[in-house]
Amino acid sequence: MSDHISYQGTEDYIVSNDLRNSVNISVALKRPLLIKGEPGTGKTVLAESIARSLGLRLIIWNIKSTTKAQDGLYVYDTVQRLYDSQFGEQNVSDIKRYIKLGKLGEAFESKERVVLLIDEIDKADLEFPNDLLWELDVMNFYIPETGETITTKHRPIVIITSNAEKELPDAFLRRCVFHYIDFPDEAMMEEIVHVHFPELEANLLAEALNSFYWLRSVPGLQKKPSTSELLDWVQALTIGGIEPEKISREIPFLGALLKKNQDFDLALRQLHLRGTDSSPRATSRGW
Questions:
Q1: Order of strands across the sheet with 33-36?
Q2: What's the pLDDT tens digit per position in 236-267?
Q3: Within 10 Å of residue 250's Cβ, how many Cβ atoms?
Q4: What is the pLDDT of residues 180-233, one digit of tens each?
Q5: Angle at 151 between CA 145 and CA 154, to 5 degrees
Q6: Strand runs (DSSP E) across 37-135, as ranges?
Q7: H or E segment at 212?
Q8: Dist. CA 54–CA 36, nearest whole Å
C-alpha cells in the first residue's frame, strides 16, 4: 500500500488543519506520530478516526506502569508449557505453540496494514520508550526461543499518546513527528457538540458552552472538565429538560462535569460568589 494517504478526519471527529497535516506527514516519513495534550482532547480517539477514515484495523496497546517493551513483542508462556508437560496430552516440544504475540508483534505480522495505537506511553518506566526505538525503526524483532524473526509485512501507522506525566527521552523524540492538541476553543467545541447532538437547541448550547468555559477558568481546579464530560453534561441537560436560562444560574448536574470533591466544593463557592442560585438543584451532586 502506498504511503501517500490523505487523512481528512471523520464525521464524528473534528480535526484541525495542523493535526491533519501532522498525521499525513508522519505516514509519509514513516515515523510514529507522538500526540500530547491534556486529558479529554481526543488523543486516543484520533487513532480510531484514522483507522475508520482509511478503512484499516485498529490495534490498541494500553500502556501501564508495569508494561515492558517485551510485552508488546511476544510472551513465552512457560507456565502453560509446564502445565501441559505434566497434565496435558499436547507435544510440548513445539515451543512455537507457546509463543503469543503482543500488540506490536500482532501489528508487524498482520497481512494487511493496521493502525497501531500505543496509548499513554508516559505511564511506563523511563526505559520503555528507548526499548521500543529499534523495533519501531527496523520493524522487526527476533524470538530466540524459536529462532524466528518477525518482520513487518506492511508498516503500521503508529500513533503514540502521552499525557506529559513524564519527560520522554530525547532519542525517542527525535524519531517521532510531534503534535500537541490544544484544548478546543468555543468555536471548535460548538462544532464538536453539533456532531454528537445535531438537533440541540441553539440557546441551550450557547448557555452550556458559556458555563463550561467559565468552569474551566475557575482557578485551582485539580481536574478541569474535558470534552467527553461536556458531551455527557449536554446529554444530561437534554434528558433532564433543563431550560437554557437556568444553566448559567445553577449549572445543574455539576457532578457530570467535576469528578473531585475539592473541585466540586470550589466551584460551588465560586458560583455563590457569582451570585448564582444556591437551590438544592444547584448544590446536588446527583442527578
A1: 57-62, 114-119, 157-162, 33-36, 177-180
A2: 999 999 999 899 888 999 999 999 999 999 99
A3: 21
A4: 998 889 999 999 999 999 999 999 999 999 999 999 999 999 999 999 899 999
A5: 150
A6: 57-62, 74-76, 99-101, 114-119
A7: helix 202-216
A8: 22
